């Protein structure tokens, strides 16, 4: 029997990032994990990650162009350069749970499949949904293999407050056979708040 510990943060935001990254490093070293995925909108958390998680392959997953404003990329060029200079990888891609589903939601005012999956995972915390989405995105882009264990870090309000250990899948095998689907092995820290499903964003 394995006894695992989960840390719950009381409040969202940047105040958790340092402790979260240190906890992720300790967990990765114990498990022999080589790759750590970090969801980072502006790149600020990703910069902290490459500083603290030295010795690991850091994959920073940013939001697609136009997520907040047309033709604008939120992940700053300066932060991209810092991450890449320190050996990290920056991936800017359309989120697999969003993308077309989000466009359909805006147009027709109802949830498509991607939105349903995202909101269901968000019951356990917004960071859980983002962390799962990021590993699938990385697998789809060939940055992680589906037969390796990775750690995925995400959060809320500009900080990191959620991390999972998981076996990832590509989008085409998400939710299919047991050997191919996304499998979360351990949530080792998360935000301790109730997050409700909501229909409009």
Describe the structure.
The structure is a single chain. The protein has 201 residues and is α/β, with parallel strands linked by helices. The protein has a single domain, classed as 3-Layer(aba) Sandwich (Pyruvate Kinase, Chain: A, domain 1), CATH 3.40.1380. Strand 5 and strand 6 form a beta hairpin. The termini are far apart. The C terminus is likely disordered.
Properties at a glance:
201 residues; alpha/beta; Pyruvate Kinase, Chain: A, domain 1; 7-stranded mixed beta sheet; 6 helices; 7 strands; 33% helix; 19% strand; globular; disordered C terminus
Layout of strands and helices, then pairs:
Blueprint: E1 7-9, H1 17-31, E2 35-39, H2 44-52, E3 57-62, H3 77-85, E4 89-92, H4 100-108, H5 113-121, H6 126-140, E5 149-154, E6 162-167, E7 183-191
Parallel strand pairs: 1-7, 2-3, 2-5, 3-4
Antiparallel strand pairs: 5-6, 6-7
Helix pairs in contact: 1-2, 2-3, 5-6
